[in-house]
Amino acid sequence: MLKSQKPHIGIFGRRNVGKSSIINAITGQEIAIVSPVPGTTTDTVTKTMEITGVGPVVITDTAGIDDEGELGRKRVARTERTLDLIDLGVIVISHNQFGEFESKVAAELGRRGTPFFVLHNKSDLAPLTDSTRDHLTKNFDAAALDFSAIHPTNYEELIAIIQKTMPESSYRRQSILGDLVTKGDIVLMVAPVDAETPEGRLILPQVQAIRDCLDNDCTAIVTKDPDVRILLENMRTPPRIVVTDSQAFEKVSASVPDHIPMTSFSILYARLKGDFEKFREGTPAISKLCDNDRVLILESCSHHVIGDDIGRVKLPRWLTQFTGKKLDFETVAGTDLPGKEIGDYKLVIQCGGCMLTRKQVNMRIRPAIERGVPVTNYGMAIAWCFGIYNRAMEPFKE
After folding, report:
1. What are the extents of the domains in the chain?
2. How high is the pLDDT of residue 203?
3. Cα 379 to Cα 308: distance, rounded to the nearest angstrom
4. Does 392 score more than 60 pLDDT?
5. How far apart are CA 203 and CA 135, in angstroms?
6. What is the CATH architecture of 275-389?
7. How far apart are the first and last CA of the chain?
8. What confidence tier does 82 reach under pLDDT thresholds 50, 70, 90?
9. Which of 67, 198, 227, 241 could form a Cys-Cys staple with 261, CB 3.0–4.6 A?
């Protein structure tokens, strides 16, 4: 399934209403295959484009919501999973046909708090009627636009409704450290370099935190964990805060005096991307785990697993050592959840989610929250296991 920090627009509708033609019309490119044969789009197709006032967005063309047969049902299931990933829905109809299929999509979007509008395609064959428009306004509070993908004369009007309907929270960049620092502060960032560190570069949370420091007129100093103590001893002005990789928590904490606030990149991302209060509420459940309890670890990106992988090796080892219990761990990468009932788990641990939007992270942990399963985050769980949770959370006590 698709993943990106950019806002996502999902194109939904029945087979042969022209969804693929719509995405081609919006992007001005032949991204999706167009055919009069129903069911031509068999899987999600994505394209990134720039929309003035919003910035880069990911537009996703999906398979028909009325697909049939065993394979068709699998396509519909994949389309339904896309609902969890998008920030704006576009329900495409033609010939004024808005029925059971479209109503279901509208209801699912509403349940997720995702705004949407209706695009009445093929207006050159059958224009949108007043009765259809009134029905959509009255029953779904949804705007409707008459459009022809073949003759897109009101293309700018389509872009305007996207700009108007897209939630601002999906594209307005939030500051990572802005409320923790002031102009002129020094932020010390600890970035261990080991076998799991990407060759020749830093990981995304570290890069974005550095940029956020610059945006807030602060100075970012980056070092490796063995050098923290000596660096602090030689600094005339102490850092306003120390931010470390979660895996180096224990070692860095021993080198940083108690009067200097300290936290981790992962905890900053838990606040930036996820339900921070639910993570805070769920973390103590680690101490209540019992033998044979099932723990679900959610990775956001698929990657080559090597050595002491944080989610698959280190985190389970630390949890086992801390609790002294024989726990049953399951790790799921990507955006899908396991096929098992989420309520069977005693704890769900979400990674920092640096490759996902806030909406996507929260949709991913929502099933666990709805079923009363405690949720936490990599950094918060690690801090709890190392006994420095209170210190790592101190900067956020307000």
Report:
1. 8-170, 186-268, 275-389
2. 84
3. 16
4. yes
5. 49
6. 3-Layer(aba) Sandwich (3.40)
7. 37
8. confident
9. 241
